[in-house]
Here is the input.
Amino acid sequence: MEQADALSVLEQKILRAAEVVAELRHEKEAALKAASESNDLRKRVSELTRELDTVRSERDALRADKDVVRKRLEKLLQQIDAISAT
Here is the structure.
């Protein structure tokens, strides 16, 4: 009878160990998937940061061009006013 009880206890321990192993495998797969998604997101953030830097540079260049055009127009308007005044 003791052997049957000991065998039953051992069987329960083995079944529980198998369940724990299955759970750990599932958790490992989930962790690997999350890590992969995290790496993908990091790459996307890096790409978007580079794009943002490019857009900012273009914006600054356009603002500088706008200022040059504005100043040239102001000079032309001053010249027109000067011609009109004479």
